[in-house]
User: Fold these one by one.
Assistant:
Number 1:
Amino acid sequence: MLGIDKKDRNLLVVVAVLALAAPFILNPFPAGSELAQFNAGYPDLMQRFVIFGIFAIGFNILFGLTGYLSFGHAAFLGVGSYSAVWMFKLLSMNVLPAIILSVIVAGLFSLLIGFVSLRRSGIYFSILTLAFAQMSFNLAYSVLTPITNGETGLQLTLNDPRVLGSSATADGSIPVTNLFGLEMRSTYEMEVGAWLFQFNAGYYLCAFIMLAAFYLAMRIFRSPFGMMLRAIKTNQTRLNYTGLNSRPYTLAAFVISGMYAGLAGGLMASMDPLAGAERMQWTASGEVVLMTILGGAGTMLGPVLGAGFIKYFENIFSKINDSVLHGWFAFLPDGMENALVTIVHPFVGKGWHLTLGLLFMAVVIFLPGGLIEGGQRIAKMFKKKKGSSSDDDSEHSPKQAPHVAE
Amino acid sequence: MDAILLQTLNGLDKGSAYALIALGLTLIFGTLGVVNFAHGALFMIGSFCAVTLSRLLTLSFETVDPTKTDFLGNPAKVKTPYVEAWFGPEAGGTIIDWAVPLAIIFAIPVMIAIGYAMERGLIKHFYKRPHADQILVTFGLAIVLQEVIKYFFGANPIPTPAPEVFKGSFDFGMLIGMDANAVIYPYWRMVYFFFAALIIGGVFAFLQFTTFGMVVRAGMADRETVGLLGINIDRKFTIMFGIAAAVAGLAGVMYTPINSPNYHMGMDFLVLSFVVVVVGGMGSLPGAVLAGFMLGILESFASMNAIKAIIPGIDQIIIYVVAIVILLTRPRGLMGRKGVMED
């Protein structure tokens, strides 16, 4: 079914179930309880999970398969956001044309940048993409202000034409984004006992698109085209000697991953119709690199996992303050409680980036395959205890690329 | 004419900073073959060495001065820095005033120690790993260093002024027979330029005229052979890493009066200095210096109004445009050596 084998189908089903049931799964603690702050099941955060998941899946098609490390992918996300907001301003508040436009524009933009950057490989490629992204960021901030609205960011106003929609609603406010009338912000709330589950239209749109993107990435991974990309990662020189020109393949991978980034950008603007230049800054590109590596580059599930992990910690970990810590360690004697709080304090709340940096370093040093490899190692240990021999899942964790090193 | 001169001078100080950071990066790359994304963080730590020293020097104790009263009529508390109490107000005041230049002495051992620890503790394990892994782990380290500094010093920029003597500007135009006020140049920027020239000259002289430098150069050319001759080249390279860290740190120390240090200044400089290194040619020390000054001056020319009128926004992107053009036309950079980081 669907042109994928049984193992992949199971993976797809698992991801689908997780994505569709996310409002339940991410809301395990009753509202109002001590642990309610660890709930991630609110629309805004769930949307970000899947949107950054799409972004990371796309980045993984480039980095995971070909080994080309791009440090400028945020530029495509930013371009996607800008085009989507322009569509809202000029055409209508329907998200569909906006998303389509953002994918097309990001694709064209990445074709341009990829065509130039892919002339070099290794670190030069990283620097070239970095240079292009910083260039777009600087331009968006300065000269392109008529298009990007500079520092303020591009926003909707009441005087926008919106040819197919209306400039303003009957009560004089800016119309909201919708999909053929279904408002993106509309949320159905379900109360079950002490729990409050929120089902948001926008989240489900993003989730369905993410599933489609995941499925497409899976097909790419398993296709002859995907095999060619892996060959490029393994040994590009040898590939060239066999008489193959690898550039069309890398360029295709670059454009596809650029379009994924544009899709993510378009969705981001559809959920919250504004776009700012800071989305294109190189630290934003660094973030998607972090997500992919943390989850496991070159694996199907890794990037999604990494994106969810980072976004969860960014939103939840950063909320832990001293009083919460005191609450946790309250069972200890006072002196020990204070000492522990002092030790933990720099790593949580505003300092969560420190934890992220340390964690990231640990992953790069000890687990080059990311969280997925960690999971596999643990699974292997359990299997060994049972006495059965385990086979290496080489398909899901390809060997580290030598090509990037040269 | 005066405008051109002024822009050249303006470009020199930024170019000096680029050249110094790029020099350190190239030293690390040329010796150890490691792409160090944490180099910007070392520059930032250098700046915070200056901040730390100026805070240490102004550590004060409070005394009650009976002759003065505060606005409530109570006897006013007067803060006296220990330094002033020990050396007398005059000498102590001078020491505090000269905190930034003094920080050079303070920063050198600190930075060498940090560089040494970094190489032995982390980078050493990454020689055999792909460059992408090196980039990633040093990128992670940069985040960590940045957050540690943020934790101790806060997120806001901390102004750290230059000594009183160097405040004000120097009328460069008068010197060469132009009208007064045509070409004005702040003293500290001139100091920065000469300081950078001194450091760059020092590093080159060290590599060129000492036995240690000779061994290091030999190691850069052919590490294996030098090792076979019975020289512990790894040890020498570790020391070079410390020196490269010190160069970045000193660039940071002296940059504090020009730009108040904040925790993410390193990241801002990092991207540019990588571009500088690539333009100069990976592994080429003269290339790094040349490209640093060239890009600094180009950037300052591009920010002239006359040029901005022709091509709007050029000042924002000139460096990247140059980098892209150079990389596509001269893949090895301006002065890159054959066989280093070729595809």
Number 2:
Amino acid sequence: MILVRRRTGGLPAGPARVGRASSADLSRGDRILRWVSGIAATVPFAGLAVIVVIMVIWAIPAVIYSGTTFFTSTKFFIGNLYAPTLTVSNGISAPHGAIYGALTFIIGTLSSSLIALALAVPISVGGVLMLSEWIPRRLEGPLSTFLELLAGIPSVVFGFWGLTVLGPLLAQHVFPTLARLGVVLPFLKGPWAFNGQGLLTASLVLTLMIIPIIASTTRELVKRVPVLAREGALALGMTRYEMVRVVIIPYVRTGIIASALLGWGRALGETIAVLLIIGMANNPPANAYGTTSTLASGIANQLDAALSDFTGMAVRAIAELGLFLLVISLLTNLAGRLVISRVSGDALPVGRGI
Amino acid sequence: MQLAGANVATKEEVSAGVTVEGLTVKFRGTPLIEGISTFFEPNKVTAIVGPTGCGKTTLLRSINRMHDHVTGMQVSGSVVVEGVNVYGPDVNVREVRRRVGMLFQRPNPFPRSIAENVGLAPRAHGLANRSTVREVVRENLEMVGLWDAVSNRLHGSPFGLSGGQQQLLCLARTLALSPDVILLDEPTSALDPDTTDHIESLMKTLSEHMTVLIVTHNLAQASRISDNVLFLMKGGVVEATSARTFFHDPADERSRAYVSGRIG
């Protein structure tokens, strides 16, 4: 076997090489390492490529069948499986009356993830600045560990807790207060489900789930602010608050945007916690508390029914939902990483106006 | 007292210098400087010299209470600036730092615009308002000779400036608070010879209106610019005298050895 072939002796021809070795002067261990690491390095790329290609192939018939309906219809209905006739659209047939609109899921995904993001960013940044600037050093360690432990809680536990504890609590004690704001913001008027299931509860649980992502990145960035820069502000008699505003925020601003994008990616794709809490309704939310579905929870929820579709179109429609979710998750992740790599240089943003 | 900016040329009052009494600074119990007592004359440039690790910077940072922010630092003794013991009870640290400016070893402009670098601190201290801040920015940038180079990019990033220009910007930022004392911690060690010359001549001008203390490793620089010299070794004062005496006829044998380059 090629992996274990022995070198047959003799000195390698030509001058000694520096840098990447050619196969002629490799020992057996080197060869094994090269093969194993080569395979290891290929797997992630290959995995991603295979997943994308398979999703595209699976989704194509659904893309043709739905056309723009995918983006314009809030109705996702796998059709009447017992009807004697099929519905044909663009030359593709599906069970009678089947319509695969993703708008409900898109609205649910965007609204839940954006509410979560809007709450998680200020909480994370405020919390990290509190930890680094005001909390005594000896408390900083345990508190940050606690923050990072939050990231380790399985999402099904979050979902269960949201369903059994947080939802009922909110429905009884928080939503009635929020509803008073309904005078100004009509979407807060209500009604809501008795157990709190719906968009807002799901968004709050998502908030808790993405705080560790945003907070841990922000913490690293705040730590990287040079001591000399901090001291420059303090030596001018600035207070901690002024130092944070004048020095630290400008240093970490871009990084916060990047980590927010990463957190957003997580919120977009979160499945089981959202599925348990958001109410699994197949319609856009009626108000801020309304039940609905996201792309991820919708896929998980519909898949079982879709498998019973004898034409196979429902599964393909779900593949199209999955492909769309995959693309937007990849884009937010890429954007986040791009911004992070830009911050790693010394390009610093500059504020305006005194 | 004049409030707006550092128009030092018209500042009437004379600084009364800095008196240090029995100053000891320990880091986690280990003394860095011990029992230092000395007087820094007003309107003079005093160079603090000595071998590496002798406590020059530690002494300098005691004067504007920069040790407050380092865990494990304990300061005892007193530092009197303008009749106020900065380690006394009820002392407003913010005001101490307004009156005692500091320039660091390497330039550390804020990640804000050039104008904001100079104008933010006077605004924070209430020394300038929205309408007068432009004038403060201009005066201080002119004072350090940076105005012509940056007047057309006041809202641009300071990180586009050369190292020397950044250090001048930091000096303008410090002067904008009209300090009575200015602390310079090897301010030219990272700079080119031209900017070094420029900053050295600025120190002379500044000393007409404030107490200037400079920590330097560069004995040639100390002899060029200082009126007085404080020579430290192993955390204690060896000799405090005029620059003339220190460089030509020092009293202590160790000073003679240091000046002639035998130690250091």
